[in-house]
Amino acid sequence: MPAYDFKCDTCKRVIEERHSIHQIPASVECVCGGTATKMLSIGSAVNTQPCSSKYPYVSRRLPKNAAGCKTDTAGRPVIQSRRHEDTVFKTLGYARE
Ligand SMILES: [Zn+2]
What is the pTM of this model? Predict the structure, then answer.
């Protein structure tokens, strides 16, 4: 069963609890009586950064085999990160997706 970290809003204590992936509470009660809310657990997801969650992705706007990109099996360019996206789109003169 995966472990989830909850952080108490009152005493800042971090509580680790194990829950079924189907029954993850949004918050648990802390020993101090406060409410501990779920933290994003490091390592549980491939990418937990809110701004970069769409990376990597396959671009449908860039030409096949676009310079500076790895490609998927169909030859479509794969954008690895926001920085990569900036570089590639700027280099090729495309607006960002
Ligand atoms: Zn507490």
Answer: 0.44
